[in-house]
Design goal:
The protein has three helices and no strands. It is globular, with a radius of gyration of 9 Å.
């Protein structure tokens, strides 16, 4: 992940972040199993 994704997440809704950075949203949701 890049710092850009983190900065964008601060000003965007979780839904928008999910579409742009699925990895970021997964990391923020412990209930969502990470794809490894």
């Amino acid at each position: 992940m890049t710092t850009t994704g983190t900065k964008d997440a601060a000003g965007m809704t979780r839904s928008e972040v999910e579409q742009l950075t699925p990895e970021l949203s997964n990391a923020a949701k412990p209930t969502t199993p990470l794809q490894s």
